[in-house]
Design a protein that fits this description.
By secondary structure, the protein is α+β, with helices and mostly antiparallel strands. The protein is about 25% helix and about 30% strand. The strands form six sheets. Strands 1, 4, 14, 17 and 18 form a five-stranded mixed β-sheet that branches. The chain has a five-stranded mixed β-sheet with strand order 8-19-13-9-10.
Length: about 350
């Protein structure tokens, strides 16, 4: 196998070719990545309370008022996930970088180091995306003993469970009473029942439907959706022009999100689908009441030196929230160690208004 020294030698080298594009698809609404909150360390707690939905009690005019017990206030503790890996810049690259007599070798070494850094950072970008997708797809995040996110619970050593109850899974406690693969299924009624149930559960309004590969065809060939389309020709024509994508506003759902492209590469370099083909996840309008991307913090070195006491040494560190990285020199053997890390948790706060449905059965 050729070494870096061989690659950076006098031979002609053409522009590098990237055979596979980096990154994994991130189709979820932007709120899943922008509704962030920084927390100190890897843990936080927030207050929970229930809005009043009862009515006042009648009394006779002039009679004493009735006592009312206020709603309980609670607390919810959250522990974030922490990811950290490092790479090492090899000796031969450092030699090329410090070679004043070979500008071409310096430039190629710089490009190689930059590529390594970008590829390394992409690992952590992918992790953030996949964690959010698994939240919406499974209502859980599974990790193995090596810290890898898994597509299923098989081999899981750690499970982040968002507490989605049985009534909000599969056929949603009878809401989906006929498979959507059946053209006679009353899909519009099913969606209306989900909307009503969400409103009853939490008061939130149906805002998003994330769907798998087979769902567009189910809707396009369905009797009730065709009837709906007669009174909504603009959306129906838009649908016919691009039958793999359900247009926003279809059947009264403000936003439809195509999830069929979502995938990731597992630790064995096998492509894994991240969303079910016959799945629809119904969500409310995304805001801070239902979702937050928590970003933890880590103390990292910002310079190195010998200090007279601990208090002086504190100034050699800084606090970084979320994703970050730093590089440190190594002595034996000489080199540079580059560390990347991320402390985060995409957190769904109201499990009663996430409906993870299997629509074909």
């Amino acid at each position: 196998m050729a070494s870096i020294l061989d690659i950076l030698s006098w031979r002609n080298i053409s522009t590098a070719v990237q055979k596979v594009e980096p990154g994994i698809p991130d189709p979820l609404p932007s709120e899943f990545s922008t509704l962030t909150e920084d927390v100190l360390g890897d843990r936080t707690t927030y207050v929970t309370f229930y809005g009043q939905r009862q009515t006042a009690k009648r009394v006779e005019y002039g009679a004493p008022s009735r006592a009312r017990t206020l709603k309980q206030i609670g607390e919810q503790s959250v522990t974030l996930l922490h990811f950290a890996e490092h790479i090492k810049i090899r000796q031969e690259l450092l030699l090329r970088l410090r070679n004043p007599n070979d500008l071409m070798a310096q430039q190629i070494a710089q490009q190689e180091i930059a590529r390594h850094g970008a590829d390394f950072r992409q690992l952590f970008e992918n992790t953030r995306i996949l964690a959010r997708v698994m939240l919406v797809s499974k209502g859980k995040i599974w990790l193995d003993t090596n810290g890898n996110i898994l597509p299923t619970s098989s081999g899981a050593a750690l499970t982040i469970d968002y507490g989605i109850g049985a009534n909000n899974l599969n056929q949603l406690n009878g809401i989906i009473d006929v498979s959507w693969a059946n053209a006679a299924a009353n899909i519009s009624l099913h969606i209306e029942k989900v909307r009503i149930k969400m409103r009853q559960n939490t008061g939130h309004v149906l805002g998003v439907a994330c769907y798998g590969k087979n769902v567009p065809n189910y809707l396009l060939t369905n009797t009730t959706t065709k009837a709906w389309g007669q009174y909504n020709p603009v959306l129906m024509n838009q649908y016919y022009q691009n039958p793999g994508v359900i247009p926003d506003g279809f059947l009264g759902v403000p936003k439809w999100v195509r999830m069929s492209d979502t995938f990731f590469e597992d630790s064995s370099e096998t492509i894994q689908a991240a969303f079910g083909d016959d799945q629809v996840t119904f969500l409310p309008v995304i805001d801070r009441n239902v979702y937050t991307l928590y970003q933890g913090s880590l103390t990292v070195p910002k310079r190195f030196g010998i200090n007279p006491d601990v208090s002086s040494s504190v100034n050699d560190f800084e606090v970084v929230y979320g994703m970050g990285g730093y590089a440190v020199p190594e002595i034996d053997p000489p080199g540079i160690k580059e560390v990347y890390f991320d402390t985060l948790l995409p957190h769904w706060k109201t499990p009663l208004d996430m409906f993870i449905a299997t629509v074909a059965f």
